[in-house]
């Protein structure tokens, strides 16, 4: 396969060409999979070419327990944003599924009404059997959509659990969806999901108990409002009938404006950049450790630990002497 | 609190003093929690003092879906090993619970019959709110029990999921427990749990369908026997009535002897030592990254990434120049 012309792809992506966007995300994914030196070089070329064109998009993460209506909510949100003339990117992330293709297909079908809209980019990502791979690829995929001129990028997590919280950490604004009668309060509190929310949605608001769930949440939010400087809104919706979606868009915009006014968006982005740079650096050290051989190589040190000559901390001291730069 | 006399504690632990064993494990846990420089120094002192006295114990991991009878099986296994005059350590590990104390209490009650036996050490460990902390503390706790003269250390995982697989990676011999009528085949295959087993137990073997489950597993195992050089045995048990436990002990001994004969135990321990040394070294690099400041410090590089002057990979290049030793 010929090496891709990355600057040309980025140029075409910036003009909104869907195929160039898709190709760039694939390059990013392949580079993350450790598919060889060429793939890594492509990934680096993509990251470098994107850098000057990123930082505009409002990244919105949507999360919540299974069955709460995340997919439907994402879809109606796309419609409402398009109606305002905004370009929208959607990343549907499934940390629990190793099947990228399946998720992609399901997503295309589900997002059928937006599939032919040139102002919408939809991409599904899965772990592809490479644990942790998703955490690496998602921020780069976000950058591609950002550079492609998306005003808003929605990151929807399909799976559940810890990885969900990690993925949401990529967003400027995190929306937590709940529904009445799911025992949400306890479950959500347990998963630490209330803590990460900037905006709450109580979906299926036409069901019994919805008003109570909304009242409970609003009461909880009013208690911690001053601490954050942002009283987190609770938006009742019926996504299946597109009810409450205008209010949700307004809440997202309000949060973005609040973040920009006080410098909070920049603070969040700096924190994200720090973790990303650190993770890449550590990955590089891991590779260096694999390269060291001889008496201070990992294999020899492991033998000495197994033979009881050295403890793992002493072994790490010796290894660090080779791979870690001395402190000035 | 005065600094502990680590060599004295290790000496007393080697003589089988339960309080010294418990204190050493606590020192290890505190050091892992990042409870300050003194705690880290204690951890290092403990690891160094233990090194010459480790490597004897046969480490057996027990895992399987909730409700399969892991706790009961562990308890009767302790009884059978004690009847043979062996010293036994038990680490009950719950990756999903942040509550160390609760698990401890439950365990003490459950293991009541062994609680006063001087040849048995029982310890419960939980994450104590520190994600990943358990993965760090467990191998050190194993070393304490090993040095204390345990012939066998049983590591029982209470939680479920990925962390279970990681914890089991600490064992010389991994026992996977299944029970009839739990839809185990599919579930276990999905979780990759069949792959990690060295010995299978079909517990509750007096229930309907047990014979079929045993036959199915034996057939599967006969298919891949040659590949590993070890045909993985399937042992039916009724742990609640201590049935099949002698056969299980025999299977564990046979696996240990097979590993020792062909060098497999050493290979597994070398692999474990390698990951442990690598993890400690990376943690050290992480700390170094936190110390670097100025133009090539993480904070400044993050600003340049957010401002689009640099991509995260270019930033990692600059950071690596400071924290990673140049390659010779």
From TrEMBL, chains A, B:
Keywords attached to this entry: Chaperone, GTP-binding, Hydrolase, Nucleotide-binding
Superkingdom, natural source: Bacteria
One Gene Ontology MF term: GTP binding
InterPro entries on file: GTPase/Isobutyryl-CoA_mutase, GTPase_ArgK, P-loop_NTPase
Hydrolase as UniProt keyword: yes
PANTHER family referenced in this protein's UniProt entry, alphabetically: LAO_AO TRANSPORT SYSTEM ATPASE, LYSINE/ARGININE/ORNITHINE TRANSPORT SYSTEM KINASE
Family affiliation: Belongs to the SIMIBI class G3E GTPase family. ArgK/MeaB subfamily.
The name this protein goes by in its record: Methylmalonyl Co-A mutase-associated GTPase MeaB
Gene: meaB
């Amino acid at each position: 396969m010929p090496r891709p012309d990355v600057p040309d792809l980025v140029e075409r992506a910036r003009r909104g060409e869907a195929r160039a966007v898709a190709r760039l995300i694939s390059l990013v994914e392949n580079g993350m999979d450790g598919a060889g030196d060429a793939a890594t070089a492509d990934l680096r070329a993509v990251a470098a070419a994107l850098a000057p064109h990123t930082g505009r998009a409002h990244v919105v993460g949507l999360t919540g327990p299974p069955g709460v209506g995340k997919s439907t909510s994402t879809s109606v949100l796309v419609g409402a944003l398009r109606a305002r003339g905004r370009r929208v990117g959607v990343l549907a992330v499934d940390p629990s599924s190793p099947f990228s293709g399946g998720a992609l297909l399901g997503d295309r079908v589900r997002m059928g009404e937006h599939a032919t809209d040139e102002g919408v980019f939809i991409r599904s990502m899965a772990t592809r059997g490479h644990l942790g791979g998703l955490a690496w690829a998602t921020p780069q995929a976000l950058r591609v959509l950002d550079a492609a001129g998306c005003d808003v990028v929605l990151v929807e997590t399909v799976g559940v659990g810890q990885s969900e919280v990690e993925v949401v950490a990529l967003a400027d604004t995190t929306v937590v969806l709940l529904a009445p009668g799911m025992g949400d309060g306890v479950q959500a509190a347990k998963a630490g999901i209330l803590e990460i929310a900037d905006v709450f949605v109580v979906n299926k608001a036409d069901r019994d108990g919805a008003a109570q769930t909304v009242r409970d949440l609003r009461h909880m939010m009013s208690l911690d409002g001053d601490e954050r400087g942002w009283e987190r809104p609770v938006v009742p919706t019926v996504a299946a009938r597109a009810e409450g979606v205008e209010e949700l868009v307004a809440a997202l915009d309000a949060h973005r404006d609040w973040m920009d006014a006080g410098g909070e968006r920049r603070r969040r982005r700096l924190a994200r950049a720090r973790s990303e740079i650190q993770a890449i650096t550590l990955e590089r050290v891991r590779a260096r450790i694999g390269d060291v051989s001889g008496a201070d190589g990992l294999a020899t040190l492991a033998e000495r630990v197994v033979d009881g000559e050295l403890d793992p901390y002493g072994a790490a001291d010796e290894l660090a002497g080779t791979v870690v730069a001395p402190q000035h």
